[in-house]
Amino acid sequence: MSDALLLALRVYWRSYRPPHWLFEGQSSDRPLSGAAIRRVFTTSKRKAGIEKVGGIHSLRHAYATHQLEAGMHIHQLQHQLGHRSIQSTLHYVHWVPNYREVTEAGIDLIAALERVDE
Predict the structure, then answer these.
(1) In this structure, are residues 111 and 96 in contact, taking their beta carbons and an 8 Å threshold?
(2) What is the pLDDT of residues 42-60, one digit of tens each?
(3) Torsions phi, psi of 84, nearest 5?
(4) Structural domain boundaries of the chain?
(5) What is the residue-averaged pLDDT of the chain?
(6) Is 43 exposed, middle or buried (0-12, 13-18, 19+ CB in 10 A)?
(7) Could you tell me which InterPro entries the record lists for this protein (predicted)?
(8) Rounded to 5 degrees, what are φ and ψ at 41?
(9) If pLDDT is split at 50, 70 and 90, which confidence band does 113 have?
(10) How many helices (H) and strands (E) does the chain have?
(11) What gap in Å lies between CA 53 and CA 58, rounded to an integer?
């Protein structure tokens, strides 16, 4: 987890102090459901005018690809994605034809978004 994401989650928690789940469902004693997350994703895509086919899992693929483009070590990405086998992680390398491991950390995508907003 990046430093920027951890900071954002801490700010969220301090602001809302959810009693049971970090992201609550319709009642505070239940977590936010996968179906609710998919609805928000689909609605957000539509509002943004994104017509490209793809579900919420495409965010995981995009994250992996961007990290490899930024030079993240393949084993670090394997750990972040929770893959037991390096073969699962190597699936993403073909999306980045000029892949070379350049940096230890890759890129903090959350921090990069904050810089764009400034």
Answers:
(1) no
(2) 999 999 999 988 888 888 8
(3) -75, -40
(4) 3-47, 57-117
(5) 84
(6) exposed
(7) DNA_brk_join_enz, Integrase-like_cat_sf, Integrase_catalytic
(8) -60, -50
(9) low
(10) 6, 0
(11) 9
Give the integer Cα–Cα distance in Å for 13 and 17. 5
DSSP assignment of 60-99 equals HHHHHHHHHHTT--HHHHHHHHT-SSHHHHHTTGGG-TT-
What is the rounded end-to-end Cα distance, in angstroms, of the chain? 23
Residue with tokens 């390096």: 86
CA atoms within 13 A on the CB side of 73: 6
Alpha carbon of 111 to those of 2, 7, 12, 42, 88: distances in Å? 8, 10, 16, 24, 27
61/3 Cα distance (integer angstroms)? 21
* CB contact at 8 A, 81 and 64: yes
Give pLDDT tens digits for 34-44: 999 999 999 99
